[in-house]
Amino acid sequence: MEQLNNITAHIKDELLIGPEAPIVVQTMCNTHTSDVEASVAQCVKLYEAGAQMIRLTVPSMGQVESIREIRARLRTQGINVPLVADVHFSAEIALAVAEVVEKVRINPGNFHKDHEKARELFAQLVQVCKRNGTAIRIGLNHGSLGERITNLYGNTPLAMKEAVMEWLNMCVENDFYNIVVSLKASNTIVMVEAYRLLAEQMKENGVVFPLHLGVTEAGNGDGGRIKSCVGISALLSDGIGNTIRVSLTEDPVNEIPVAQYLADRYDGRLYSSMSAIQIEGKKVVATYAAPSRERLLLDVSCDFGKRLLDREIDEIVLKGYYLDLEGNEVLLDDSEFAEYLVDELLQAARRRFYRPEYIACPGCGRTMYNLESTFNEVMRRTAHLKGMVIAVMGCIVNGPGEMADADWGYVGEGNGKVSIYKKKTPILRHVPENEAIEKLLELIEKGDC
Predict the structure, then answer these.
(1) Cα radius of gyration rounded to whole Å, the chain
(2) Which tens digits make up the pLDDT trace of 34-64?
């Protein structure tokens, strides 16, 4: 095999993403980009929390000028954090905004519905990016693979890898290497397999592009953090991944400490609080001396997520303690919390389901309703439905596709309306938001329509 060409993406003069650079922590605004004041304020908060790159959605040409103004205001405050424009369904917007921001995220599944036209427009985008020193993220989501690819390979990790490789080959054809790649999924097994397939294919081809990692639509709370850590750590521990985002259905500021933990751990600046381990066949007994509840949760997820995904272990017993907010030891041996933590870990690795499985996006400028409060209410009222997969999605961009495995789905339409899905089929459309949760629960109780 020829010598590998390990690519480093240059985010103008601000940041490097690649094998010789530290892991980069990024996040995304959930403000409307057209609301410049709110978006600037949130960018400042995210930057102060440690975000090294911030993404904003650009759903229309009007937001191109909005993001230009946001960037200008941040620069006048001395904040040089790179901005990423998130673009779906419009190559024209991508071409326009590439002159404004440090990086443009495009989705191969919806860049243009005609593949030959997509190739032509992508070549144009590359030229704009070359002139302006702008990087591109080829950001594919499991939920938005495109009809042509799914007809060839199905809705599979292999399809995700093949779809991205087409676009990476176009980058090479156009002599453009300022590229970062992602293949996100809400299913940790699918996500990890897709990235592994791509990493191996790039090595075989001799050109290895930087990878951005994330479990999309991970949800919130403990479950969202555990699920994100399981998927991301499984890849980082294999040496796969250069930049990360932890997608939580919460204030995006809350994503930063989890992502920073992962970056610190896999860059060798932080180590697990596990003090002892015993392995008997596929059973593990692990003892911890964790400095906090949150730290224990993250440590356990990273210590055993990959082993569960790869089926190296089947059972985990937690012992030891973590420190509460007052510095007191909280014992894990035979505790309800230890049992809960193991249940959540097994659920995140899709080894055993003890509660409903939730798919929920983090929200962004395309979301037209209070996603976090709606998701919390759906979880509260469906907590008894063990094993059922329920999705709460902010918009139609990745919603219907990413929730393809869900039994039921709640998808925002905008203008105060919601669509309710059963499997892949919309059962009700244009449901007023204040009635939508009740309608969803009524349909679930009936079981079929």
Answers:
(1) 21
(2) 999 999 999 999 999 999 999 999 999 999 9
